[in-house]
Amino acid sequence: METTTLQEFNADLARRRQLAVALGQAPESKYLYLVAKGFKQVSPDMAKRIDAATAQLGLRVPKETLRPDVWEVDLDNNNAGRQRRDNKKG
After folding, report:
1. ∠82-45-65 over CA atoms, to 5°?
2. Per-residue pLDDT reduced to its tens digit, 8-62
3. What is the DSSP string of 19-32?
4. How far is CA 39 from CA 20, 34, 46, 54, 64, in A?
5. Measured distance CA(51)–CA(67) in Å, rounded
6. Fewer beta carbons within 10 Å, N or C terminal of the chain?
7. Whether the Cβ atoms of residue 15 and residue 59 lie closer than 8 Å to each other
8. Rounded Cα gap, residues 20 and 28, in angstroms
9. pLDDT value, residue 83
10. Does pLDDT of 79 surpass 50?
11. Alpha-carbon distance 51 to 78, whole Å?
């Protein structure tokens, strides 16, 4: 499946509205715009929800791009999505 960034995904207003509804938000919500522009940070749970919802809409925004501090992105070794060990609490 093709992947993209949230900012690129949001460039299509209709698609952004579909995602907002899929996430249980009002279609006019500015939340996704603020996240895409870097003014807000999503929780790890919301990053997973955005990943799943965008995949259902046909153009996946990987959770790793939303929270690289939580998940490693190592495209050379094809292990994107592995949780970072240095960030675990406990």
Report:
1. 50
2. 999 999 999 999 999 999 999 999 999 999 999 999 999 999 999 999 999 999 9
3. HHHHTTS-TT-SHH
4. 17, 5, 15, 20, 18
5. 11
6. C
7. yes
8. 8
9. 61
10. no
11. 17
Please list the residues that pair with 3 across neighbouring strands.
60
The token duo for 51 is 């990943």
Contact 6, 61 (CB under 8 A): yes
Three-class SS string for 58-83? CCECCHHHHCCCCECCCCCCCCCCCE
Structure-block tokens of residue 84: 């970072």
Task: Measure the N-to-C terminal CA separation of the chain; round to a whole number of Å.
Answer: 35
Q: Cβ(5)–Cβ(11) under 8 Å?
A: no
- As given in the structure block, the two tokens for residue 17 are 């509205």
**What residue type is assigned to position 80 of the chain?**
A
